[in-house]
């Protein structure tokens, strides 16, 4: 399996938002928190949803 190639990455607070193509060639978006011991990450179909999740994410590591 090939690793995901992320593009158009941005950072909103501790959360990174990036776009990538899945195995079927569909455009997907991910949001992942980089705070220690947080563990938040999710994939979305739209960039707006990923950015909204990044803006509203609160973590208590």
UniProtKB/TrEMBL annotation:
Taxonomy of the source species: Bacteria, Bacillati, Actinomycetota, Actinomycetes, Kitasatosporales
Domain of life: Bacteria
InterPro entries: SpdB (IPR007806)
This protein's name: Mobile element transfer
Organism: Streptomyces alkaliterrae
